[in-house]
């Protein structure tokens, strides 16, 4: 076997994951190979991460012990079809495709092939997030029908290099996707509005960006380092009839809490829809 770890899809998330495992010393660059249709992305992986690359998904799948699927949900069927004939026996497959169940991958890779029909495909599903790029990610994992505890621990070790890791039942993965996988975008959207407000009130953009960003970073560290609830921490900043109280009152009066909860639920709903679309492609 040429490579310890293969990657199908050399996007930003794959870049974050590979950067983490290389920094942690889990693999050496020559033990990793990435495939992607984009020459530009492969060049970036070669030049920045120093790993091996190949444009052929099937080649990478055939020559690695562990395969990391980092394609978008809409691309998963095509990727699986390309690698199915060349998968070596005993390979561990780790998928980060949002909404795509371990069962879908297992069934796809065993269907329609007498060679694979008796092979139990070992699949671990993971939902990481982009703060892995700075070593501050969050990743939740679940195992498929045939993945062992050792497989789950191996996968966890890959993501633990740049993220906190949580093991959950697969039934919880849509919620994880909505909160953690999509969560950085909610944060950036909030900061975007805070920066806009700062500029409208006379700050320059960099001042507003630093004020909002550093405040959010400090608040997150307080949250994770405290045994107090989020509600208690928020109340400590919200003096009666003070400035924060005025802002919170305005948000509540305009249904911000309800809108936020419903927005996160919409993300979870979309995750479920992606799974349904893959299982029923004609619908």
Give structural attributes.
alpha/beta, Rossmann fold, 14% strand, 2 domains, eight-stranded mixed beta sheet, ProC C-terminal domain-like fold, 53% helix, 283 residues, single chain, 12 helices
Q: From the 3D structure, determine the CATH topology of the largest domain.
A: Rossmann fold
- Along the chain, the helix and strand elements come as EHEHEHEHEHEEHEHHHHHH
Query: What's the domain count?
Result: 2
**How does the major sheet shape up?**
8 strands, mixed
How do the strands of the widest beta sheet line up side by side? 3-2-1-4-5-6-7-8
Rg over CA atoms: 21 Å
Strand content: 5-15%
Structural class call reads alpha/beta
Please report the first level of CATH classification, the CATH class of the largest domain.
Alpha Beta
Number of helices: 12
Low-confidence stretches: none
**Annotation, overall tally of beta strands:** 8
Query: Distance between the terminal alpha carbons, to the nearest Å?
Result: 40 Å
* Chain-averaged pLDDT: 93
């Amino acid at each position: 076997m040429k490579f310890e770890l293969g990657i199908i899809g050399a996007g930003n998330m794959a870049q974050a994951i590979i950067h983490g495992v290389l920094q942690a010393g889990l693999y050496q660059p020559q033990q990793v190979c990435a495939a992607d249709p984009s020459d530009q992305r492969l060049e970036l992986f070669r030049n920045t991460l120093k790993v091996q690359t190949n444009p052929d998904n099937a080649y990478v799948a055939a020559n690695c012990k562990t395969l990391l699927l980092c394609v978008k949900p809409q691309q998963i069927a095509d990727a699986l079809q390309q690698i199915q004939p060349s998968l070596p026996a005993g390979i561990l497959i780790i998928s980060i495709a949002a909404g795509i169940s371990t069962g879908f991958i297992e069934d796809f890779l065993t269907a329609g092939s007498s060679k694979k029909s008796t092979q139990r495909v070992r699949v671990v599903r993971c939902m990481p997030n982009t703060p892995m790029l700075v070593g501050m990610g969050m990743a939740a994992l679940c195992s498929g029908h045939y993945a062992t505890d050792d497989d789950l621990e191996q996968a966890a070790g890959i993501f633990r290099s740049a993220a906190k890791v949580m093991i959950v039942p697969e039934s919880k993965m849509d919620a994880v996707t909505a909160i953690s996988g999509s969560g950085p975008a909610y944060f950036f959207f909030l900061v975007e509005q805070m920066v806009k407000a700062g500029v409208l009130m006379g700050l320059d953009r960099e001042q507003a960006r630093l004020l909002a960003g550093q405040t959010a970073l400090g608040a997150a560290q307080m949250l994770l380092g405290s045994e107090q609830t989020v509600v208690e921490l928020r109340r400590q900043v919200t003096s009666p009839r003070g400035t924060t109280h005025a802002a919170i009152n305005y948000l509540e009066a305009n249904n911000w809490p309800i809108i936020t909860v419903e927005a996160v639920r919409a993300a979870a709903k979309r995750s479920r829809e992606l799974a349904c679309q893959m299982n029923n492609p004609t619908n």
